[in-house]
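Sample entry as discussed:
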Amino acid sequence: MTKRTLRTGRLRWLARYFEEHPKEYDQGTFCGTAMCVGGLAVWQWGTDAQRTEMDRHIRGKGDCPTGVGPQARWVLGLAEHQAIPLFLASPSWLNNTDTTAKKAERVAVVLRHLAATGEVLGEESA
């Protein structure tokens, strides 16, 4: 089994992106939207084919590609226990009654904490 190396620079890039573009954040389904944590990671660092598919989806010209979660996990160097809470449609640390901007702010905090510690924040901390 290969040990994954957490890609902390990429996690910080995602956090900064969602801070700078909060209205673009969309975690509506389990890695089924282009602007969720996983979708953006694949669009930014995936293979050319994956990026092309994500680009089509972002422009409304196709469905979100299957397998975004595992692809995003790979490009971010996440273990399964780190990926699942990040990619859920309703993670415990995300209040679905919050505005999109507040959700983007929360996900940025979680991403920065993950980059710094290797752990995903719990509900009480985000």
Q: What stands out?
A: Residues 8-117 form one domain. The helical segments are 8-20, 37-45, 48-58, 68-76, 80-87, 100-117. The chain has a mean pLDDT of 79.
